[in-house]
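Weekly sync, protein design subgroup
Attendees: M.S., D.O., the rotation student, P.L. (late)

Item 1: inverse folding check
M.S. brought a backbone from last month's batch and wanted to see whether the design step gives back something sensible before we order anything. D.O. pointed out we never logged the input encoding, so this time it goes straight into the notes. C-alpha cells as presented (64 positions):
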C-alpha cells in the first residue's frame, strides 16, 4: 500500500506559500547584494592592476 502526501488545508497552504515567496525574495535580495560586492571587488582589482601598470610605465620612463 502506498502512502500519498497529505494536501494541507487552504489556510496552511496559503501560509506556506506566503513564506515560500518571502524566502525567495530574501534570497534574491541576498544574491543582488553579493553581486554588488563582487562588482566592487572586481573594480578594486582592476584599479590595482591599472596602478601597477602605470607605476611600472613611470619607472621605465624615468630610467630611459
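Designed sequence read out in the meeting:
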Amino acid at each position: 500500500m502506498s502512502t500519498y502526501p497529505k494536501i494541507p488545508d487552504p489556510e496552511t497552504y496559503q501560509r506556506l506559500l506566503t513564506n515560500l515567496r518571502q524566502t525567495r525574495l530574501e534570497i534574491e535580495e541576498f544574491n543582488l547584494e553579493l553581486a554588488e560586492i563582487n562588482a566592487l571587488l572586481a573594480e578594486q582589482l582592476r584599479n590595482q592592476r591599472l596602478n601597477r601598470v602605470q607605476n611600472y610605465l613611470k619607472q621605465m620612463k624615468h630610467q630611459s
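Discussion: The helical segments are 10-63. The chain has one domain: 10-64.
Action: P.L. to compare against the previous round before Friday.
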